[in-house]
Design goal:
Shape: globular
Strand order of the largest sheet: 2-8-7-6-5-3-4
Bound molecules: 4'-deoxy-4'-aminopyridoxal-5'-phosphate
Number of strands: 12
CATH architecture of the largest domain: 3-Layer(aba) Sandwich
CATH class of the largest domain: Alpha Beta
Structural class: alpha/beta
Number of domains: 2
């Protein structure tokens, strides 16, 4: 890769090597189109909208709320989160030594990577992979090794090389909705331990499950030996804008994350932590049934997809589907641009989730009513049936419509070799 030119105003190699977040770029266009008055069916947002009780910020102590607080996270919120993990997932956490709260699980993952990886270490990531994993790995000067979606999780260890330091799994998975069970997690953790590889499981959608109980890595590896969990209140409590996420790991790793958190964040917003700690029980009591209801809605939408002959990767959790574009002649990005500009339907192109997933689009059923989702799927079906290549590529179409094209990075995704 040729180096960036240096000089006044030059940007770093590091930032040049990563693309924008494709899903966030797509949703920015959605906000802009809406601001122009366009009616859109939004299947691109990475969240589910809940009815959330509001207790008012008057319910917290203003003298504390206005100031910095513990870099580990407010003790009373750590205690609530630990109690939640014990009650819901049977995973016992020491809230004083094994838990750190930070500004969203995005930051929780990044702190863990920075605390674990050295330059050129490799991180094995199972596709379809949430789009920030590889880019955060690159930002930590390490190398993401993406394993194609059709490889079974049991095969991941065969991708380990001498520099493999970590595996990242998302359970349940965004964008497929697939859940990894206790046997799969146990076998993978054992294989990781044998090779001194850390296992990081992102459990951001842990309450969006229905058919089988969710298994936390913490329940499978209670000694936390090489086993780190990240989670967030963004999805489970429906408060993505609050930016509260957390890491659960052995005490030494938490202490390392704490140092980084002190320099990068100081603390997650005190006022929000106070509020969440105060109302945690009431909020989870209100949102947990709604999370389950979204997964039931997903099951109904799955039946509609079957009727329409739309195929998607296996999985019954979360509020996402990873839908195959079948014989559509263009890329996933071309299809997404056509759906957006011609049909008023926003989806995320599959290329956001790996090198093997170009011929998919992600749809989220979390924010639109069922009838509108089904109508959009019917439209998607007829687009796929049309088989007409769009004469103008997506980037050009979007540019003509007045949007900045998606900025690709100079480096490409690294596919793992066995
Ligand atoms: N992990 C996964 C799998 C996600 O989908 C998201 C958000 N889309 C996050 C982590 C980040 O969530 P937050 O930073 O809001 O906690």
């Amino acid at each position: 890769m040729p180096p960036f030119p240096r000089g006044v105003g030059a940007l770093s190699q590091r930032v040049g090597a990563i693309p924008e977040a494709l899903s966030i770029w797509m949703n920015q266009i959605v906000y802009d189109l809406r601001a122009r008055g366009t009616d859109l069916t939004v299947l691109s947002l990475g969240e589910a909208f809940f009815q959330i009780p509001w207790f008012g910020l008057d319910s917290v102590d203003a003298d504390r709320a206005n100031h910095y607080s513990s870099s580990r996270g407010l003790p009373e919120l750590r205690a609530q989160i630990a109690a939640y993990y014990a009650r819901e997932y049977g995973s016992v956490i020491d809230p004083d030594r094994e838990l750190l709260i930070t500004a969203g699980s995005k930051m929780a993952i990044y702190l863990t990577l920075l605390a674990t990886l050295d330059r050129d270490d490799e991180v094995v990531i199972h596709e379809p992979a949430w789009l920030s994993y590889p880019e955060q790995v690159r930002l930590a000067d390490a190398v993401p090794c993406l394993v194609p979606y059709d490889v079974d999780v049991a095969e991941l260890p065969s991708y380990f090389g001498p520099r493999t330091r970590m595996v990242i799994l998302n359970n349940p998975n965004n964008p497929a909705g697939r859940m990894y069970d206790a046997d799969e997690l146990r076998a993978l953790h054992r294989a990781c331990r044998e090779r001194d590889v850390e296992l990081l499981v992102d459990e951001a959608y842990s309450d969006f499950v229905l058919d089988a109980p969710f298994v936390s890595l913490g329940a499978v590896a209670p000694d936390r030996d090489g086993a780190t969990v990240v989670n967030s209140l963004s999805k489970n409590l429906g408060v993505s804008g609050w930016r509260i996420g957390y890491v659960v790991a052995r005490a030494e790793l938490i202490d390392a994350c704490l140092k980084l958190n002190q320099h990068l964040i100081t603390c997650a917003p005190t006022v929000l932590q106070l509020y969440l700690a105060r109302h945690f029980e009431a909020l989870t009591a209100a949102t947990l049934p709604q999370a389950r209801a979204v997964v039931e809605k997903r099951a109904r939408i799955a039946r509609a997809m079957e009727r329409l002959g739309l195929s998607h990767l296996g999985g019954s959790s979360t509020f996402y589907f990873f839908v195959s574009t079948g014989d559509y002649p263009g890329s996933g990005l071309d299809l997404a641009a056509t759906l957006l500009l011609d049909d008023g339907i926003a989806v995320v192109p599959g290329s956001a989730y790996g090198a093997s997933t170009e011929r998919f689009v992600r749809i989220s059923i979390g924010t639109e009513p069922e009838e509108r989702i089904v109508a959009a799927l019917e439209r998607l079906r007829s687009r796929l049936d049309q088989r007409l290549p769009d004469p103008v590529p997506a980037a050009e179409r979007l540019r003509r419509a007045g949007f900045t094209p998606f900025e690709r990075a100079r480096s490409t995704v690294t596919a793992a070799g066995r």
